[in-house]
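WARN no homologs supplied; continuing
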Amino acid sequence: MDDFDFNRFYLCHYALSYVTALDITNDLHEAQDVVQTVFCKAWALRTSMHDAACGKKWIVVATKNAAIDAVRRRASHRQHRSGLDGRVAESAEQVALRNIEGAIVWHALDGLPKENRTLLRESFIHRRSHANIAARWNIPLGTVKTRIRSSLTRMRSIIGA
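OK structure emitted
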């Protein structure tokens, strides 16, 4: 489109791109480099950009791909320096995929009420039993079980699983 507003596109999608890159790379400077690469590519493709929804989808996919490439390059560089076999590159890919999955889960958690996030954290991160959570927070056991089950159901719908 001739009327593509790159400044608006950048302001709308910078944070999403940066958070996605940071989740995958786990490195502030590398994430900034990834975002710069992605927006340079967006600038080059500005004549073929569509509406904002298309831009959001494009920015997520482009950022994920660029960040995974950056992690692979970093692993390849380490492999080259240390003289190791291909296990390092495979490990870097696994780390990148795990970081993507983690970002998706954190996004889904953000869509839940605070009290439900707290119960999920108690159950899954702190590995407390439902009965222990109920006693700790002075909530009926049935309520704890219902909130955890409904939160997991809600997260599945957000994630699309």
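The CA atoms of residues 122 and 129 lie 8 Å apart.
OK
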